Amino acid sequence: LIGILPFGISQAYGSSLRELGETKIPMVASVTAIGDSAFAETAIESISFSSGIKTIGENAFKACPKLTSVSIPNGVTSIGEGAFMGCGSLKSVKIPGTVDIVTKNAFASCAKLASVTLESGVKTIEETAFGGTKTTERKARIIHSLRGLFKLKDILAVVDFPKATYMYWQKRFDRENPDKHLEDEITKIHTENSTFKVARIL
To answer: Of 34, 40, 125, 152, which sits most exposed with the smallest number of CB within 10 A?
Structure first.
């Protein structure tokens, strides 16, 4: 197991382990820090953070295409710049109140990110922390999930998002999507035939 390799070393995972091809990362309790770029561009699908983790380094999990959710444990105080940037399949994130700051680009360019849970105690969200989502609806949903902890005007300023656009999507969040069945079928077909390519016919 990857978590056993650096047993007893607090500053663990300082170098990339992408060549190991592991998809799950368990960690022993003695691990207190994840080094910069430790698991960047790997095929990991899940992370079991140890209870002793305090810091997540810069670009630690950058561009991990199969990572779908992240639940950061209580006790973590620092999430490095670009820590989860470019994780294209990441859909949900939970951040505990022990985190003092969500740094810039920490979750930037996570195209499918639709749910962000921030527990009470998080003090600062830096500019572009959640920037670069592909659609305004996804960004609006993220903003909506943060409203219980921060003032709307502050969130909009940080993510550079127009209030009018947010209000437009807010009115539609609870509406039933009439095209959901069709969208699900298209997504299913695309997933089952991911190796096929579509060419434009003129």
So the answer is: 152
Q: Which of 44, 97, 41 is nearest to 72 (CA)?
A: 97
Cα(3)–Cα(179) distance, integer angstroms: 44
Q: How confident is the model at residue 14 (pLDDT cuts 50, 70, 90)?
A: very low
DSSP string, 97-154: TT--EE-TTTTTT-TT--EEEE-TT--EE-TTTT---S-HHHHHHHHHHHTTTS-HHH
Q: Residue 140 has which token pair? A: 């609006």
Tokens 């003092």 correspond to 100
**Which whole-number Å values give the CA distances from 50 to 87, 112, 139, 140, 146, in the listed order?**
21, 26, 30, 32, 26
Q: Which of 100, 161, 153 is nearest to 128 (CA)?
A: 161
**HSE value, Cβ hemisphere, 13 Å, CA-based, for 46:** 3
Phi and psi torsions of 116, nearest 5°: -130, 120
Q: Which helix (H) or strand (E) holds 168?
A: helix 163-170
Q: Residue 59 is encoded by which pair of tokens?
A: 């670009």
Which residue in the block uniquely carries the two structure tokens 């990572």?
67
Q: What is the mean pLDDT of residues 14-36?
A: 62
| CA separation for the pair 154, 160 (Å, rounded) | 10
Short-list 176, 179, 170, CA closest to 152: 170
Tokens 């921060």 — which residue?
150
